[in-house]
Structure formats: C-alpha cells, structure tokens
Amino acid sequence: MSSAGDGPYLTLRISNGLLLVRDGVGTWLIHGAADGLVYPAADRLVWLLPLLERTPSAVSAELADVSIADTPLPALVRFALTAWGKHWPT
What is the rounded distance in angstroms from the CA atom of residue 68 to the CA atom of residue 58? Predict the structure, then answer.
C-alpha cells in the first residue's frame, strides 16, 4: 500500500470488512480488512456503492480532512448514475 511506516493516513469504513484508505502519497485504495488485499479505488467503484446509502453529511464528516472533490466519491456518483440510467427505457 505504501512504504513501511507510512500507513494509511485516512480511513473510511465502507462495509463488509472493506476500508477506503488514502495512503501517504495520496492514492485512494480499497483495503480488505480480513484478507489484507489492496486495490485501487478507481478500479473497484462498485465496492464503494454502500457509501451512497449514507447521508452526504455523514460521509463528509468522516472525510473532514480532505475535499470531497479529491476523493473517488464524485466518480462513484457518476458511475452509479450511469449504471442506473442504463435501465431506463428509451
């Protein structure tokens, strides 16, 4: 995830043992708490969908040290709206 001793400096619990972490160099990662596997958050937006069940203020409060625009959350919302829009009749 990052070099030894850096560790993630920001963590947000997603659900099902997944954590959204920002490492010491600013990379957003999804970390499996149980298995220790790490994936780039941008490659696994579907895993972030449970965050959309929370209120925006609750998520913002947990990410108070960083601008929401600097997180994968805008990409998550675009992903969700695009996926949802595919189910509308044309």
Answer: 12
